[in-house]
């Protein structure tokens, strides 16, 4: 399921392979079945992220049905969105043990079960468990494999592929909002959730399309780097040397463990061959023993990979740039979610409801967001453009818009800022690409799981925090200012760490020259 350590070294411009003969690329890398993976991921974003963007329809129904406070009822949607992302690191464990396809199919069943059980809810607290937790975990089990598989199947056009697949969020926001609204009108919210649960079973189909690449295919991945990509790789190479060097330290124990596992399986096979002359019942027992042994070996190897990524010698947290990336993620996502939550109230405060009803500001963000993901993906894949620089420029544009939005008091001004927010937030499609550049393909599932976990924490607490600030100040302005300043702190961390990493080798070389 994952690339070898040598593959990671090559990704970051390892010169040890400079003279090796290029291997013929697999036709499914950047083509063939890879586009089916993009389609699968696109549908996953429609069914999961799109339906979560449309939860405002159900939130109004829950308020009317259960007569609870807005704050308490809002936690149902917040839990579902937050848990979908927060469970990322643990879903990485499932992927390490079972693979992306199996994880996604199980997640699809769990998500559908959460929707169906929620249709029988008798109170809001029941929805916390069925929809917030059950459907949220199921969504996370499908979402992470959908992102990881696109990263595995693409090298040259990773940014474009991720951009195309994640546009499903924007399309889903429109489709699912219209669908849930019509279903609630025609059949009531309970039947609407039951029907949506049946529709969510299509996530299992999306998971079935996630055909895993064989280890041989991953090892034969022929990466063609442009000059600009090589320069970016060198700029970040020192931050990744720790992971690569520490990975070598853990290689010997892994080899010993694999040898022991093979010895156990070999002994079982030897007993099976030697016992062919025995009864059918004993042969059946040996087959069960062999299956259990193989399953045990798979689980142990998957857990070892997951554990080493977080706590072992090859821990991802030894990469300082990646740690800065996590800090950035803790503040970034809430700056995108807060406008979706509070823009309707801002429009009402400035008496702009008539214009907003014709063309809602949130719809402007969603529409331009689709184009932003595709366009930024295309730009990032250009030979002369660095994905890292595009990512940073989009972040700077978004944080500027967040800080500027409270100053706009006309519909036209708000519409322009919202369009810029939608376009610049298209950098979400670049997050898996940047993560893979930092840690390599092998660690992508675990690393991106940590990143979306940080995003989940931001999505879970960001909107309630903004509401709390409003209760104190009776203004939304301070919510945007505080969110924007925290976002800027995260961007500064992204800027500082690569500079520190580049300065450290210079200091070491100077000290060695003096000695």
Task: Give the tags.
23 helices; mainly alpha; Growth Hormone, Chain: A; 2 domains; 80% helix; 515 residues
CATH architecture of the largest domain, please? Up-down Bundle
Output the number of helix runs.
23
User: Quaternary state, please?
Assistant: single chain
Count of beta strands: 0
Radius of gyration: 25 Å
Spans of at least 5 consecutive residues whose pLDDT stays below 50 are 1-22, 222-258, 503-513
**How much helix is in the residues?**
over 70%
Mean model confidence by pLDDT: 75
Quick one: CATH class of the largest domain?
Mainly Alpha
Topology-level CATH name of the largest domain: Growth Hormone, Chain: A
Distance between the termini: 46 Å
Query: Which sheet architecture does the biggest sheet show?
Result: none
Instruction: Assess the beta-strand content as a share of residues.
Output: under 5%
Structural class: mainly alpha
Helix-strand topology string? HHHHHHHHHHHHHHHHHHHHHHH
Number of domains: 2
GO molecular function, one term: monocarboxylic acid transmembrane transporter activity
Main location: membrane
GO cellular component, one term: membrane
Pfam families: MFS_1
